[in-house]
Amino acid sequence: MTISQVEKARDRGILTGILGGFLGRSLSLLAPFIVMPAMLHYLGGTMFGIWMTAVSMTSMALFVDFGIGNGLLTRLSSANGRADYAEMRSYITSAYVALTLLALLLLFVLCIVELSLSWGLFSSRYADSASLSVFAVCFAVFFIGVPVSVIQRVMYARQQAWLSNVWQVCGAILSVVLCLLAIRLSLAPWQVILAYSLPPVFIMFLSSIFYFRKNIELRPKISNFSGSKTKNLLHIGTHFFILSIITSISLNVDNLIIVHQIGPAAVTEYAVPAKLASLLGLVVTTLFLPLWAAYGEAVARKDYIWIRRTTLKMSFLGGLAVLIAAVIMVVLSGILIELWMGRSFHAQTTILIFLSSLSVLMAISSPSQMLLNSVGKIGLQAKAWLCFLIASVSFKYCLLPYFDIWILPLINSVTYLVCILPIVLLASRSIMNNQDVK
User: Fold this and answer.
1) Where are the domains of the chain?
2) CA–CA dist 395, 59 (Å, integer)
3) Predicted TM-score (pTM) of this structure
4) First to last CA, the chain
5) How far apart are CA 113 and CA 146, in angstroms?
6) H helical segments located in 149-160
7) pLDDT digit string, tens, across residues 231-253
8) In sequence order, which residues have a C-beta less than 8 Å from that of residue 69 and are 6 or more positions away?
9) Judging by beta carbons within 10 Å of its beta carbon (0-12, 13-18, 19+), is residue 436 exposed, middle or buried?
10) What is the pLDDT of residues 327-343, one digit of tens each?
């Protein structure tokens, strides 16, 4: 392929990844809204609440792979740019082995905990067989999905995000259909929840079989396992793991500060507009995640001209797209929140404005962050986010007693502008100038 053809293929992969990402995430978000009314009616308030608790706990355990998945994406993207299929097979096999062992260990711990609760070794108000079955199903499916999800990283690394999203859509549709069918058949609560939870994982497993059957050069074999590759994945994964924890705390600490400084009643006034604004975060992720693999491949080919052009273009267009979405959201926020929650909330418009400004800043910096991810420069980002965390929390605790709750997202935006934006822009610039690439 000529340089022009490679660049066109890369741009096409980014565009299809963005469009497919919006479709896949939209349907994945829609699936719970379709089944939740039927689930609430069928399970009843108590069992439904137990299921929601289990779902929340698995959501908080998203970092359970210790960053290996993100590390794999970085390494595969670079190897894909060099067309080094032997290295890709070795990394894929090593990731499967490491994550399978991790999942087995977590499943073993889950079994011990459930047996302990069943035998009454620990007291629990909801340690009955039905409740434990619900928790067991949710966590078992989640842990099984840890190694199975490797295929998603492989598809993203090969700039086939659209293909991953097609399978994701199939999983969401099958999940809804089987869940409603299980309710129609009056199955046990844990079976209904299994019918809803298992299809996405099963579809990922099915996609792995089809993908590796078609792409024989990437098919993992135990003979391709490498201890050094596993250590490398654990090393870079640990950095991603630390970055994820710092980022998650930084962006989700506001409710805790409000509870401590003002009280739980004020959390509701803040949480509802914050939940609406979180949709902009989904837009940011969908727009820029496909850049990760494209940058890795471009760096491997030393195509720095394309990297500079794409980074500038995506920062401008992505920032503009999120800004437009933010303006529409703020203008319609009164109507949307009234329809959604049935009432308005204190300072909701001001809170949304400042939360939206943070999303716009993140959109502007995201192409640079994806570039840093693609070359494994995670420590620098972790340090920047740690500075953001310390500074923002300090200012929030000092200023919140003297201002309204809208001061929290304002502090986030200003602190991001000072602590993170310039650092990632300068670091990415050095990579674009081919001065800081390992």
Assistant:
1) 1-241, 253-438
2) 29
3) 0.77
4) 26
5) 20
6) 150-157
7) 999 888 888 888 888 888 888 78
8) 95, 99, 149, 150, 152, 153, 237
9) middle
10) 998 998 888 888 766 77
